[in-house]
Amino acid sequence: MPSRASVFLSVRLLRRCCVIAALLPACWLAPAAAQDPVTLQLKHSHQFQFAGYYAAVEQGYYREAGLDVTILEGSDGNEPERDVVSGKAEYGVGASSLMLARLAGKPVVVLGVVFQHSPYALAMRQTSAEPDIRRIIGKRAMIGSLTDELGSADELLAYLIKEGIPASSFERVEPTYNTADLISGKVDAIAVYTTNEPDTFDRLGFPYDIYSPRAVGIDFYGDNLFTSEREIANHPARVQAFRAASMRGWQWAMSHQEEMADIILNKYSRRSDRAHLLYEARQMVPLVQPVLVEIGYQNPERWRHIADVYAGLGMVPKHANFDGFMYRVESSGTSLLWLYRVLGGAALALVLGAAIHFSLLARVRRRASAAIRTGEQRFRTMFEASPLGIALVDSITYEYRDINPRYQEIVGRSQVELNAMRWLEAGHPEDVAQVKLQMGRLTAHEIGSFKVTNRLFRPDGELVWIEVSVTAIETEAGSHPHHLCMIEDVTDKKQSEALIWQQANFDPLTQLPNRRMFHDRLAHDMLKSQRDRSCIAILFIDLDHFKEVNDTLGHHQGDILLVDAARRISACVRKSDTVARLGGDEFTVILSELEGTERVEHIAQHIIDSLRLPFPLGQEQAFVSASIGITLYPDDALDIDDLLKHADQAMYAAKGAGRNRYSYFTPTLQVAALNRMRLTNDLRGALKAEQFELYFQPIVHLKSGRIHKAEALIRWNHPQRGVVSPLEFIPLAEASGLIVDIGEWVFRESARCVQRWRQQHHPEFQVSVNQSPLEFQREDGAYDAWLRYLQSLNLPGQSVVVEITEGLLLDANATVSNKLLQLRDAGIQVALDDFGTGYSSLSYLKKFDIDYLKIDRSFTRNLAPDSSDMALSDAIIVMAHKLGLRVIAEGVETPEQRDLLAAAGCDYGQGYLFARPMPAEQFDELLRQQAV
Question: Per its UniProt record, what SUPFAM superfamilies does this chain match (predicted)?
């Protein structure tokens, strides 16, 4: 006998057939119905997260269902719920917090679940190898809106509570949804979508840890398609059509990810590039699970689980009733009362119904079997064609039960080879332990899934990085548990990350740590020093005369020297010490775990001795030395900036003491550095405040005793310090670049004075002005401006003599040669100052246009008959005259020196015997006295 339910089914089917038969003629005669306009409100801006709805539009699924669908972007997560309840939109996409809305009395109904697992997680900066969520205690975190009572923040707060971290233990701030706030350190944790923000972090090379509520068994649904009770009551057929078309769109989108990404870029949004959209798609696969679960499926037990989590937060009462919250795809049919009336009224209908029932039952079974075969085929097709490697694994024996082709491709083994192996056999030994630990939690039902990144070896020995997602699979009672393992090859991504990290932390030339890595290591060593109460030494190393190597042999040979220098310095320290290149020819060394300074001095001297040896550079050899500044932590400073500043000051002290040596930092160096800084600051306003004054020292023609020339010397009348020596402020002016403006002022003031003296005292009077190498090597046409100024004063070029040093001729490049030629062509003469104390060779005197040699005062000071200084002075004078040069002797202080120089044929003398440097007004008086 057929059961009451089967008879009822027969009658119901018969009734439907009659209704359909009655309606068919009307359908044939009626014109095509217009499409129903409906609105779908998203909860965020357009992205792959909503790809299924775009696919339903673009593939025509909504149109086939008689629907004209408008998809609207959302500005906040609760906008869909507000608009659907108010009737502004018929459908929306919402999170699991829809349950709170339902229990609060709002008539929302979930039509289907798209994300079987929530992508919501917490991100924090990675600070150690072992992630620890408890680092959030006492920190600032962006977790959900502070003014919204509903939202996805609830699952994160529940997760933290389950980890023993109540919301009161950290500071919640209003979210900006900007990852830059975490990267910059403005906040210490932010809520993220695992399908979105991690890609941004990876691209920027930002180290981060992800914490998911699923780690403690809190497993919420993600995106859900929902509507209102009003829409279901008024338009039941439209609801069913909209749901079916939407789920069909999702099936298409998840199996056509690349095409879907192009559609989004072309028609919906270009906020994200194609790579990011595909990243979203890949991350959504384990969350949507399109292969394992029919998209749209929702489990009442999962919703009960979510309700229990909310109850644990005190947001809903325990055992809350949410009947009517889940949409039933098929209606329940006609009431039993009508059935009983039919049964009581017509026995013949029972017989007829039974016959029809068996006929239809067979048809239903055939359709069900066909649907199962179709579903299996669809599952197999998606399984085989998935871009992810997928394997079904016995969780106890680790035997493979099923493997798709992509999995075989990634691990580099055939299905036969994998069937003969056990899961994890190909894994890197250092990673297997971590996976097994998580598997223990999985099989103990502490977690339902986990995700790790690890390594495996292919048969040829190649190491491959893979992202692994493992999810527990329900099996029949009494059988072994199984899990689904999905893998993705991320080797290229890891190699790119490694390259970016290498470039960000290491000098590309020497492969030493760069400034950033040096700071990180020094900070780490300082923390260790505080724990161990040990000492740290920082050595600041600068190569002496390296610029000459670059200028004479070229930058390529200079780079070779730097690489060799890096090797030599590294060989002088322990492997646990750090050698870094800060840039140019500057190196630093961190010597940690010190008990005294004896070892520091030994290493510093060892470095100096090593760098003093010749550097072979092809057919040439280069010689440099090193000046080293040493500072100690914690004795000299307590922070990195001060330590480096003190080491730099000590290095300059070593250079000032003659180079090729080391110097410790002392408080005196700090005082001197502060004085230099303050003096430089004062120097910047000195020119504008007219604090400079020109002094002139006469240059006397020795035979006649007449004054035909003078040297212009600058003096600085500081308002507080008084007169500041040029020996003190000129190096500061050169280092700060102020020397250019000061030199221009000296020239113009000298030109005005020489104009007066040529008119009043001698028509060929000359004034010498000193030129710094920095001024002389400029390429801005400065001498063109000089010549124009001389012309404006009606002065010839011969009225000015430019004094340069021998060191300038060492840099015998095209700029120096061109400047000397430019001066010669303009009639401006050149004097070589301090001759005999530098590095110039006689060939320079022949090569360049020099008019005067100035014998340095160190020769004049000790002049005596038959002395070596007299012999050298004689030789300089004779040589100069034979080359057509005139000679000026500096530092003449006694009549004996003057007479000896005159007897040797020296042309001019300059020194205190004749006059000290004096202001222009006093020099005027001196010239008037000479004329008397």
Answer: EAL domain-like, Nucleotide cyclase, Periplasmic binding protein-like II, PYP-like sensor domain (PAS domain)
